[in-house]
């Protein structure tokens, strides 16, 4: 008890400090989790530090409903078998009556030398073995490319049987299948934002891969508890113990197996459940029949005993109750172990590890039991929202998943469906009913909900109402991804999600005459996907699209052709450089023009300074006005803000977007006749440009995490190749006859890497890369980029 309370308090005091920035702070969620699990009694001296109390107390009926509700995501490195696993889950839960094989993907290095698509990518059209493709990959493009692009939401019911009593219990599970490809990382962010728990899928051979660490980071950012599922136990070289060690060392989360395999590789036939000490096998053609035996086979007895001890030891490290028993040399009961796993998983202190083979239909059902047993229900996740009627410094409000509370829902994904815009929404509190009027907290607009559905991949089921803690989709509601909806009786707004910076851009124009479909499509895609950005280069008059990778942009160009009938020509992909400032610079700038007729007069005074990105949203530019006393009438402030954002569009060094900058307006002056919005906008642009010169501007470039896997005999060539590209090797590991090298390399230095790797490894090496952050370029590159930009400006003159 003591540990639980101390933990809750220390976490909460931190969460109060951060509450304005981190609405989904893991700490807050942990605090809530341990509060739920350990129920610490509040004490008078801690009153100030207690979490905000939920607005509505849950009734017994709410608890009954929520207890058996799970919202989970399935996340992993590309190709770990997420889609195959989700397909099995849907089949075993009765959502689908047949299993369509996930597409068989053959990955080859792209053969394009002029491009940045050095990552492994599908090189031919792929289909499921039965030519239908997995249910969850519903977009045609997904089936063709054999990868998951958009996350598909679905729900299913799962019946578990209590071990002690044999009683059956039905759970309602919403599942979001998320793409593994780094270019679609925003889909993973979105899914995690609205989920209460996740299954982290790992390959039993490849283990923790680059994208695994990315999804791990995302799960931490949103405080999502996870169980781990080591898939592909049937593969030659499968070694779950090595993977568990990697989870501990690379992801730095205490983890232990809750199962041991019975047989391995092509002999893999079931698992020993270490918690309840029994064996579980699958029988029947598709493994639908789960056969439970109280006997543990002799062949794995010693291993099972050792691994159960290891599980208890790991739990003793993170759970007070087991820790105490351990110290007193007492053995915990099965129930005590199960409760401790649940408690520490929800508190983000532990990840129980399940084993299986989705493709061989083995041990998927026990993992589903684990979802119900160890992942939190919606009442166990703390969710905070801002009350926009209060100052932004006011503490956030804790939402409560009570059915009769005022409605608060978050639109987390938009999709252009067959019947118009489909908006996926998670209802956090209150009940959403078909025909209800709902309010968009951002725009203040009121809309009616004409149709409410539950999604099952690309099929849907009409429903009349949906309760808190659930996920649904609504039709005909215009909004942007990340908007909060209420019933109008509250001013709650949930903060937005983390949006990474684009790393690649290219120019695009329609072939032939431009039709309205071109801009319609670009608008649509920007609304759907905040990592897809469009801007017009005012000098070249070109439309530039930017995104998270070449494949990301390619998909939109392809969607433009398929969905909007617009064939496009694109320019060469370019690295998305940025500019930033490294020190504060003050400004006092007067814009004055007197050319007969009405003059222009505006003066702005203030400073610009470097700004770190917000950890929750990634936003790293901000405008602040602290003008007092009416030296600038308030109606001109928006024009000044507009001028600042306009000035950010093109840096003076290389013509790239400026980031990492706060603009603080302190003072100014106006003229009763000659001041106008235009004059203040121009004064701001002038002021910014002057200040920028004194703020020691630098050019930034995207740095990528690159992971290369190749046969061990090519290790020195691969390391040498990365070194010549100025890569910093951060990790390398040799496993059997294969090695993995992880490096940080500037994206600009990655051109042509696919060819180099192929050449130096006889075509046997593979690599993936993902965005890490932007960093200042080396001085000589900065000089070259500045020089090149000066030349283009001179030509234009
Ligand atoms: N040997 C083996 N192969 C599997 C298993 N599960 C999936 N696969 C294969 O692994 C490949 C990738 O499976 P998917 O389910 O598409 O993987 P994914 O993680 O959803 O892939 P993305 O959506 O592109 O990230 C396919 O060829 C599957 O047949 C398994 O348990 N054992």
From TrEMBL:
UniProt-listed PROSITE patterns: G_TR_1 (PS00301), G_TR_2 (PS51722)
Keyword annotations from UniProtKB, A to Z: Coiled coil, Elongation factor, GTP-binding, Mitochondrion, Nucleotide-binding, Protein biosynthesis
Domain Tr-type G: 67-379
Keyword Nucleotide-binding recorded: yes
Biological role: Mitochondrial GTPase that catalyzes the GTP-dependent ribosomal translocation step during translation elongation. During this step, the ribosome changes from the pre-translocational (PRE) to the post-translocational (POST) state as the newly formed A-site-bound peptidyl-tRNA and P-site-bound deacylated tRNA move to the P and E sites, respectively. Catalyzes the coordinated movement of the two tRNA molecules, the mRNA and conformational changes in the ribosome. Catalyzes the GTP-dependent ribosomal translocation step during translation elongation. During this step, the ribosome changes from the pre-translocational (PRE) to the post-translocational (POST) state as the newly formed A-site-bound peptidyl-tRNA and P-site-bound deacylated tRNA move to the P and E sites, respectively. Catalyzes the coordinated movement of the two tRNA molecules, the mRNA and conformational changes in the ribosome.
Localization, UniProt: Mitochondrion
Coiled-coil stretches: 301-328
NCBIfam families in the cross-refs: EF-G, small_GTP
Protein name as it appears in the record: Elongation factor G, mitochondrial
Originating species: Laccaria amethystina LaAM-08-1
Pathway given in the UniProt record: Protein biosynthesis; polypeptide chain elongation
UniProt keyword GTP-binding, yes or no: yes
Gene Ontology CC entries for this record: mitochondrial matrix
HAMAP family linked: EF_G_EF_2_B (MF_00054_B)
Region (Disordered): 35-55
């Amino acid at each position: 008890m003591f540990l639980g309370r101390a933990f809750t308090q220390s976490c909460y005091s931190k969460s109060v400090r951060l509450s304005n920035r981190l609405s989904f702070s893991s700490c807050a969620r942990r605090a809530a989790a341990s509060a739920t699990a350990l129920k610490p009694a509040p004490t008078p001296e801690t009153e100030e530090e207690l979490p905000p109390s939920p607005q509505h107390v849950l009734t017994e009926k709410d608890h009954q409903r929520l207890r058996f509700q799970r919202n989970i995501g399935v996340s992993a490195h590309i190709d770990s078998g997420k889609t195959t696993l989700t397909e099995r889950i849907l089949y075993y839960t009765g959502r689908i009556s047949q299993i369509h094989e996930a597409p068989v993907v053959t990955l080859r290095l792209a053969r394009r030398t002029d491009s940045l698509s050095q990552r492994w990518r599908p090189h031919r059209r792929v289909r499921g073995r039965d030519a239908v493709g997995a249910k969850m990959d519903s977009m045609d493009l997904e089936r063709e490319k054999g990868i998951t692009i958009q996350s598909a939401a679905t729900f299913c019911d799962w019946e578990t049987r209590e071990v002690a009593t044999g009683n059956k219990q039905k759970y309602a599970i919403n599942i979001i299948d998320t793409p593994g490809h780094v270019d679609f990382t925003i889909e993973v962010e979105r899914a995690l934002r609205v989920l209460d728990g996740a299954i982290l899928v790992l390959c039993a051979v490849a283990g923790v891969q680059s994208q695994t660490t990315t999804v791990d980071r995302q799960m931490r950012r949103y405080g999502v508890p996870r169980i781990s599922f080591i898939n592909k136990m049937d593969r030659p070289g499968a070694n779950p113990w090595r993977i568990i060690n990697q989870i501990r060392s690379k992801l730095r989360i205490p983890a232990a197996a809750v199962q041991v395999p019975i047989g391995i590789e092509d002999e893999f036939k079931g698992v020993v459940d270490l918690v309840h000490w029994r064996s579980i096998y699958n029988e029947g053609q598709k493994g639908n029949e789960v056969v439970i035996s109280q006997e543990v086979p002799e062949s794995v007895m010693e291993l099972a005993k050792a691994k159960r001890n290891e599980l208890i030891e790991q739990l003793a490290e993170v759970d007070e109750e087991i820790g105490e028993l351990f110290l007193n040399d007492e053995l915990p009961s099965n129930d005590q172990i199960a409760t401790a796993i649940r408690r520490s998983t929800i508190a983000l202190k532990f990840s129980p590890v399940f084993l299986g083979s989705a493709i061989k239909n083995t041990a998927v059902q026990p993992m589903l039991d684990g979802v119900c047993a160890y992942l939190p229900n919606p009442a166990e996740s703390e969710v905070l929202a801002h009350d926009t009627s209060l100052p932004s410094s006011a503490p956030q409000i804790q939402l409560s998943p009570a059915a009769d509370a005022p409605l608060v829902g978050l639109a987390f994904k938009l999709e252009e469906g067959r019947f118009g815009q489909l908006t996926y929404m998670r209802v956090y509190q209150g009940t959403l009913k078909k025909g209800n009027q709902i309010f968009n907290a951002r725009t203040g607009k009121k809309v009616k909900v004409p149709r409410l559905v539950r999604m099952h991949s690309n099929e849907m089921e009409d429903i009349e109402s949906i309760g808190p803690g659930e996920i649904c989709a609504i039709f005909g509601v215009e909004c942007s991804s990340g908007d909060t909806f209420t019933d109008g009786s509250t001013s709650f707004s949930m903060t937005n999600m983390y949006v990474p910076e684009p790393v690649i851009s290219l120019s695009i124009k329609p072939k032939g005459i431009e039709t309205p479909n071109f801009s319609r499509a670009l608008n649509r895609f920007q609304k759907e996907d905040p990592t897809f950005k469009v801007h017009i280069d005012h000098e070249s008059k070109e439309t530039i699209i930017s995104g998270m990778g070449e494949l990301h942009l390619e998909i939109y160009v392809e969607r433009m052709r398929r969905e909007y009938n617009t064939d496009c020509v694109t320019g060469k992909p370019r690295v998305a450089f940025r500019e930033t400032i490294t020190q504060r610079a003050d400004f006092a700038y007067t814009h004055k023009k007197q050319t007969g007729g009405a003059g222009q007069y505006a003066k702005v005074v203030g400073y610009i300074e470097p700004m770190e990105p917000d950890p929750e949203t990634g936003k790293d530019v901000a405008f602040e006005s602290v003008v007092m006393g009416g030296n600038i009438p308030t109606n001109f402030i928006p024009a000044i803000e507009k001028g600042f954002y306009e000035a950010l569009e093109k840096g003076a060094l290389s013509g790239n977007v400026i980031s990492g900058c706060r603009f603080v307006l302190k003072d100014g002056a106006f003229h009763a006749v000659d001041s106008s919005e235009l004059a203040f906008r121009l004064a701001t642009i002038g002021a910014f440009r002057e200040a920028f010169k004194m703020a020691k501007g630098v050019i930034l470039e995207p740095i990528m995490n690159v992971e290369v896997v190749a046969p061990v005999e090519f290790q020195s060539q691969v390391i040498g190749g990365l070194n010549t590209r100025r890569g910093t090797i951060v990790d390398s590991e040799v496993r059997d006859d294969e090695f993995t090298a992880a490096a940080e390399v500037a994206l600009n230095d990655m051109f042509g890497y696919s060819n180099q790797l192929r050449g130096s490894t006889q075509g046997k090496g593979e690599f993936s890369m993902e965005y890490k952050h932007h960093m200042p370029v080396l001085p000589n590159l900065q000089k070259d980029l500045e020089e090149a930009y000066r030349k283009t400006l001179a030509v234009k003159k």
